[in-house]
Amino acid sequence: MTGRTFDAPAGAKASRLQNRDANVGAPSSPRQAVVQVIDRAGHTHTLGFSSGTSLMETIRDGGIDDILALCGGCCSCATCHVFVDDTWLAEVGLASPEELDLLETSEHLVAGSRLSCQIEMTEQLSGLSVTIAPED
Amino acid sequence: MREQYDVLIVGGGHGGANTAVTLRQRAVGGTVAIIDAELTLPYQRPPLSKAYLAGALGADRFLIRPESYWSEHEIDILGGRRVVAIATEDRSVITDQGETIGYRNLVWATGSTPRRLNIPGHDLPGVHVLRTLVDATALRRDAESAADIVLIGGGYIGLETAATLTKLGARVTVVESLDRVLSRVADEVVSRFYEAEHRAHGVEVRLGGQVAGFESSGGRLSAVHLSNGEVLPCQVAVVGIGGEAEVGPLAAAGANLECGGVLVDARCRTGLPDVFAIGDCAAAPNPYAGGRVVRLESVQNAVDQGMSVARLLAGQSDPGPTVPYFWSDQYDVRLRTTGLSGHHDATVLRGDPHGHNFSVISVTVGRDVAIDSVNAPKDFAQGRALVQASAYVDPLAIADPAIPLAELASSSR
């Protein structure tokens, strides 16, 4: 691999950070909290997260490539299914009726099933452990 | 940039980006690049008319992959350039920067360009389209100081944008040339529901309205003129009248055109050697359209076709197309559609639109082909199985919201 990943023509005011300009809604807390995610290969990842983002974003931006999250997080596709560790169920909370309707079509539904896009990360969830559900 | 790539992807939208991602997921080595006209990393488009436009979500929150992903996976992003010609015999493309880039396999995933109104004033400051992050950023900036906004076109983009801008406090008028909104994509029951929903939120909906021109004042848009003589004062107008697939270079290289895109087979192969087309650009036979060739403009279709091409390049079999699906968020109403209507011969209403919770099921010769569900995720989720099975359905049974669609699915075969 040689050269830059992002290659723009000379003269173009290229900034790969251009779509970071608008920082509306960006995480405000600098404190690093972590979540443990077990991927489909069984590997455990410890990922930092920012309060106010979703668990789906944390997994995606943490470099785990297992979830499709096709709808981008609007509870419309059920491709970001995770199993929440039993000990964290009470803290994370239950799926909403809408979310459960989508989860129920999964062959892998369990008591701790959630759509990760519907879990908003807060500092109270630091230490949370989840496993990415098998692909349906 | 290299002189040649094993897989050269043109277009960094949902389809192109997911082609590259899937190649790496499937452990395909070799050199991969994405050529993109924009100067951004691949991002998701749905938030542009909703959370991003509303200022509720920063652009760093909806990248398809984080910035570090692309270099870690050795995928070159060649931004700020367009492919203007394809030399199929040399297996190379020529960009508008004068570069020649070779390929072993070429995946055409450029998506669509917004259609513009070819009438005087269409390029005035204040007249917008909405397709890219740059478009959305410019619209948001202009909309912040606009008291009156006119949305031209009552499709999904127009209606989602109308909902967002109304919530931001603007007085919004939707001008639709046909006799109902969403006429191209939804059943009339769904159209009338959304029309009423927008009116309830204070949006003025003009059906059968033809835009005749744009008026300016001080060099900026000041009004939209309708062909019946009516003048709608506004500081911002958004033209949301659909898009046209960017397939010019493919057509010039000899690809066959169909339905406004390039004709491909079930694995997205164009007739040109080792050239694929996906997403908005591809017209493909689809089992969920009764085998007819259709061109679908949706995130799900672009992603699935990208994954299908990547599997082919990885030498892997393909599970075949998934059931098409689509979603739209407006106000607190969530529409989820599965299957393809348009070739149906009857519709069945399930639930009550006035209760904001219903589905419309499209049926062809007694078989379930599509479901539009409004705030009815269970119908959407369970209905997918019915559509997938192309199940024979009893119209009386599916009209009864008390009977779960899953029960009908299990008894259908």
> Assembly type of the shown chains?
heterodimer
Instruction: Look at the helices and sheets of chain B and give the structural class.
Output: alpha/beta
Q: For the terminal residues of chain A, how far apart are their CA atoms?
A: 35 Å
Average pLDDT of chain B works out at 95
The parts of chain A where pLDDT drops under 50 for at least 5 residues are: 13-29
Shape of chain B: globular
Report the strand count of chain B. 26
Characterization of this structure:
- The complex is a heterodimer of chains A (136) and B (413).
- Chain A has 136 residues and is α+β, with helices and mostly antiparallel strands.
- Chain A is 13% helix and 18% strand.
- In chain A, strands 3-2-6-4-5 form a five-stranded mixed β-sheet.
- The longest helix of chain A has 7 residues, at 55-61.
- Residues 13-29 of chain A have low confidence and may be disordered.
- Chain B contains ten helices and 26 strands.
- In chain B, the strands form six sheets. In chain B, strands 1, 2, 3, 4, 5, 6 and 19 form a seven-stranded mixed β-sheet that branches.
- In chain B, helix 5 links the parallel strand 10 (171-176) and strand 11 (204-207).
- Chain B starts with a strand and ends with a helix.
Write the layout of secondary structure elements.
The complex is a heterodimer of chains A (136) and B (413).
Chain A: E1 6-7, E2 33-38, E3 44-49, H1 55-61, E4 81-84, H2 89-92, H3 97-103, E5 113-115, E6 129-132
Chain B: E1 4-10, H1 14-25, E2 32-36, H2 67-72, E3 75-79, E4 83-87, E5 92-95, E6 100-108, E7 112-114, E8 127-128, H3 133-144, E9 148-152, H4 156-167, E10 171-176, H5 188-200, E11 204-207, E12 211-217, E13 220-226, E14 231-233, E15 236-239, E16 243-245, H6 248-252, E17 257-258, E18 261-263, E19 275-277, E20 282-285, E21 293-294, H7 299-313, E22 325-330, E23 333-339, E24 346-352, E25 357-364, E26 367-374, H8 377-388, H9 395-398, H10 405-410
Helix pairs in contact in B: 1-7
